[in-house]
């Protein structure tokens, strides 16, 4: 994956098997999030393909979700003014026939699917420990609980592979421990997990395998023991201290580029505009709908998503 002259990720070859927890570590700017963005169709890789269960995935976020890959974001992306339960319901739309708009507008013919979806959403909230907060607005949750809500929302699409981008960032040690247990429980449900994290104790405790990314290339991949003992890993880490979250300027730049990539993606066709209108799991898809806005469905969709979109991110509060 290249951005102008910068190659963010180069020839990274990666396999995650079902029932496995695999860690992806590396210094800030190593290309870890970019790798996730390539996997989930937010970025179209300059070269190379992503295959899931033997099938090459088209670089479209909603198709990737449908195929069974779900993710959480380094910069939390929740619908801040929706309730906890509603956020999880939004995550279910790829698995219900009715789709997002029906789910949000509670249109006719929606009742049965709604009941089933709600039951499943509550089950997932129970699973992550947020059931008693289901009516709270997402924005009012403490940071650690927002991260758990993101996980519940990702699980709502019933994935076979879950990608977690720094799930414990900003958590206290107690929250980190419960997140660790949560990830083990997710693995035990038969879901493969690929997790990016800076907390080495968390990673080496959790993962069956760990891959180290440095300057966009895979330095080493192996068991926790092997990777921990590798001198190059130690050197890479000592050479470049972690600084926590990326700067606001960088985050804004990345956001803008993502929006651009998604907009370019729609190529102005009504079919993709429609897809953009029904996509939910990324703010980018909604922006694409707004940017292109072709056809009536897209127009209506774009307007509605905008309404939700204006409140869709808690980044400002959480960074
Ligand atoms: N959309 C983008 N446009 C330009 N450069 C980008 C974009 N996304 C990421 N980068 C650059 O790619 C490199 C890898 O970034 P990232 O994947 O966020 O690293 P990590 O998640 O490992 O900290 C960085 O130099 C970053 O500035
Ligand atoms: Mg990152």
From TrEMBL:
InterPro entries on file: AAA+_ATPase, ABC_AA/LPS_Transport, ABC_transporter-like_ATP-bd, BCA_ABC_TP_C, P-loop_NTPase
Biased composition (Low complexity): 270-291, 298-312
Cross-referenced SUPFAM superfamilies: P-loop containing nucleoside triphosphate hydrolases (SSF52540)
A Pfam family of this chain: BCA_ABC_TP_C
Species whose genome carries this gene: Streptomyces griseofuscus
Domain of life, source organism: Bacteria
The keyword Nucleus is annotated on this UniProt entry: no
Higher taxonomy: Bacteria, Bacillati, Actinomycetota, Actinomycetes, Kitasatosporales
Residue ranges of domain ABC transporter in the record: 1-240
Ranges for region Disordered: 270-319
Keywords for this protein: ATP-binding, Nucleotide-binding, Transport
Record's protein name: Vitamin B12 import ATP-binding protein BtuD
CDD domains registered for this protein in UniProt: ABC_Mj1267_LivG_branched
GO molecular function: ATP binding; ATP hydrolysis activity; L-isoleucine transmembrane transporter activity; L-phenylalanine transmembrane transporter activity; L-valine transmembrane transporter activity
Keyword check for ATP-binding: yes
GO biological process terms held by the UniProt record: D-alanine transmembrane transport; L-alanine transport; L-isoleucine import across plasma membrane; L-valine import across plasma membrane
Gene3D superfamilies: P-loop containing nucleotide triphosphate hydrolases
GO cellular component: plasma membrane
């Amino acid at each position: 994956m290249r951005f102008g002259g910068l190659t963010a990720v180069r020839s990274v070859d990666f396999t995650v098997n079902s029932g496995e927890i695999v860690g992806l570590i590396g210094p800030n700017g190593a290309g870890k999030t970019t790798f996730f963005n390539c996997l989930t169709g937010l970025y179209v890789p300059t070269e190379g393909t992503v295959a899931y269960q033997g099938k090459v995935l088209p670089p479209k976020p909603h198709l990737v979700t449908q195929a069974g890959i779900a993710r959480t974001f380094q910069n939390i992306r929740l619908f801040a003014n929706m309730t906890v339960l509603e956020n999880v319901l939004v995550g279910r739309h790829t698995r219900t026939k009715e789709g997002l708009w029906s789910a949000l507008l509670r249109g006719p013919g929606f009742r049965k699917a709604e009941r089933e979806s709600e039951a499943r959403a509550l089950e997932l909230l129970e699973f992550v420990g947020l059931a008693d907060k289901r009516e709270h607005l997402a924005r009012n949750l403490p940071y650690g609980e927002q991260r758990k809500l993101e996980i519940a929302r990702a699980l709502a699409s019933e994935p076979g592979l879950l990608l977690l981008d720094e799930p414990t960032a900003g958590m206290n040690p107690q929250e980190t421990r419960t997140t660790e247990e949560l990830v083990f429980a997710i693995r035990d449900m038969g879901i493969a997990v690929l997790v990016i994290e800076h907390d080495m104790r968390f990673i080496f405790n959790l993962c069956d395998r760990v891959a180290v990314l440095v300057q966009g290339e895979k330095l080493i991949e192996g068991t926790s023991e092997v990777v921990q003992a590798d001198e190059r890993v130690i050197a890479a880490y000592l050479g470049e201290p972690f600084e926590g979250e990326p700067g606001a300027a960088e985050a804004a730049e990345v956001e803008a580029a993502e929006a651009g990539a998604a907009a370019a993606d729609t190529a102005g066709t009504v079919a993709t505009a429609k897809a953009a209108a029904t996509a939910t799991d990324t703010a980018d898809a909604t922006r694409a709908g707004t940017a292109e806005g072709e056809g009536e469905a897209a127009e209506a969709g774009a307007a509605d998503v905008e309404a939700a979109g204006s409140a869709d991110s808690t980044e400002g509060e959480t960074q």
